[in-house]
Amino acid sequence: MTAQIIDGKAIARSIRKQLKTEVTRLRQEGTTPGLAVVLVGDNPASQIYVNMKKKACKEVGIYSEEHKLAANISQGDLFSLIDRLNADQNIHGILVQLPLPQGLNEQEVLERISVTKDVDGFHPVNVGKLVSGFDAFVPCTPAGVMEMLTHIACDISGKKAVVIGRSNIVGKPVAQLLVNANATVTICHSQTKELEEECRAADILVVGIGRPEMIKRDWIKPGAIVIDVGINRVNQAIVGDVDFHQVSEVAGWITPVPGGVGPMTIAMLLRNTVVGAQSSK
Ligand code: NDP
Prior knowledge:
With 281 residues, this protein is α/β, with parallel strands linked by helices.
């Protein structure tokens, strides 16, 4: 079997096109969706992500502003900026790029962002709403994963889903969204015994661990849907957590890296910002 590719780049492009139409409509009604991105310190990878987000905003007509702060900024000064953005009527989404430099309390910073502008979906109130099955900002990467499953018309209900990784950004919210969609979900992590066995049971396998090409061909149930969230730099190349060449011989569907989940994450950020603008009216 050769897996069909889930082309995140193409799906994200079509989502951006739809969003552009909605942004045009909102602008005609006098509301320009606005995103504020806060970057603390000079982590080069973070700067690349921020630049990609700003470029995507521009493409669909979302106003964006970047606030670049020194790594040694005090938490109080960072809070003052967030408070100002919370009150700014031109801003509908606030994103503090993670990770934060040492000395800043990530949880307190995320909690400072207004729940209604929390386009990353990391505020505990939005996390709680997601768990309760209420409307909330959903974290962008997990939302992108679900959008890809929708795109291939995957009937998630009753499927056995296995999520490897339990971070607040990827693994836990993905697992929750899959539960909300009626999958039977197993969450695996570094302490899981018999990881290969767990994987082999999966109709839907989502991997977000940060281990280059760790998931191999014989871990996969023939025909399974494999979503690779991992982004790993190996020499000069970017590879996922799944051994794409091996696994694509067995899986039914697979996401490439790059060009899979990555572009979807940014598209979901844009969507959340547009939703923030719609809700502000
Ligand atoms: P974290 O480091 O926060 O979490 C990694 C998770 O993987 C942990 O739960 C850890 O288990 C688990 N894990 C690590 N090693 C193993 C192993 N050998 N076997 C089983 N489980 C293991 O990473 P993130 O969740 O932030 O990111 C994961 C990957 O996704 C990274 O490659 C990251 O770059 C990528 N990513 C991609 C995005 C995109 O847009 N495509 C967005 C965000 C992240 P434990 O909890 O026990 O330590």
